[in-house]
Amino acid sequence: MRFEIIALLAAAATSSAQSVIGTAYGYGAGATGGGDATPVTPTTNAELEKYLADDTKRVILLNREFDFTGTTMSGAGCDKTTCSAQSNGGQYYLGDLSCGGSDMTSVSSITYDAAGPTALKVGSNKSILGVGGKGVIKGKGLSIVKGASNVIIQGVELTTINPGIVWGGDGLDMQGGNTKIWVDHCKFSLVGRMFVVSHYDGAEATLSNNEFDGVTDTSATCNDNHYWTMMMIGKTEKFTLDKNYFHHVSGRAPKLGQDGVDSYFHAINNYFEEMKGHAFDAYTGARALVEGNAFVAVDQPNTQHAAGISTFVSNGGNACSSVFGRACLENSVDSSSGKLSSGSSSGFIAQLGNLDVPNPIEASKVAAYVKANAGPSKLGASSSPAPAATTTAAASATSAPAAKTTTAAAAAATSAPAALTESASSAGAAKLYAQCGGLGFNGATECEAPATCVKMNDWYSQCINSSSKFRRALGR
Description:
Oligomer: single chain
Number of domains: 2
Structural class: mainly beta
Mean pLDDT: 86
Distance between the termini: 15 Å
């Protein structure tokens, strides 16, 4: 009987951690990933690779580190004379794609880890969920295959992908035509090239609550800051960037669009810190609303090129009112940072529709909130941020009620980890076997009938069916 009780407790506790926390929003809205598929927990690298690759609806739980490193190869490439990998803490460049120009010196043999250049393929209908901050993929990135859609990656760390070698691998790439993509509470570090990159056919995605950690001793800019942060240059790119933490990165954080290609970006409530280079880089055709972000010790909040793009808008004023039901949020730039350009053509904001983020916050609150909540270990650990104050004019603009943070729809879609999960109903009651209490818990404390909230210990209470075998076994 004792063993049965322990097994039931373990199974029930695990079930509450087996679903996506929160609801996809912004340009990633509609992503459900593996939905209600029975979760699978890979135990080997080969198993993980198999589960990821097809289009079968799956919830994939990562509760350990999957280490793909250890097999080396060598190939020709080059080194930059002014920022040398051999002497100045730079990066090697594998192959010949980056080897033109007088500043490059040929290198006949560069040793690299064989896993990095070939990412793990990800098909449609996947929830890839890190469990308890333990889901780590080391040595390989993830590649959402061309045309794949409905993918959620949450609570996963991607790290150590040939950090000293450009073209040694990307953290996450989207091969094109990808829609309903949500990347939330992940961490990217020690990657040879891009943390995140979308290729030429474009994607529609939301990146939220992620940490982009650029600390490195092999930098393309020889300043201990990772350069190749994020690049979205495809056709009709549509990205929401919300409450991400960018630090110690020196460039392309992010790079938005390319000349002559139409794309849309909403960057809100992101925190940029300790950057010896540039954050935003934008090109003709990029329509970017940059609002409510905070910059601390950032040499260039945007590049000079971005400053010349009229649709790179960081001071939208009332242009958001008719769309989001609130004024556009002001950004915060501290005295140790460079200037953030404002842009002048905000008409495109009307085309963002009702894609506002849930619970937007004022820039003055962004640093504290983002540092406390971004990354895998913070998933499910906090409550909703206090919403930004709305002006009378913004409050009276009600053409987009679904986007207001005071509505039930916004509350249901919140990006704050513990505000609402898929284990809670729209009425605010937790589902059977979901957590309903415990020290530090901020979620629903009532249960859907016929379940009731049962205290297991000071840290954990759970919704249990009053007539269930489980409850009888507990003697409650």
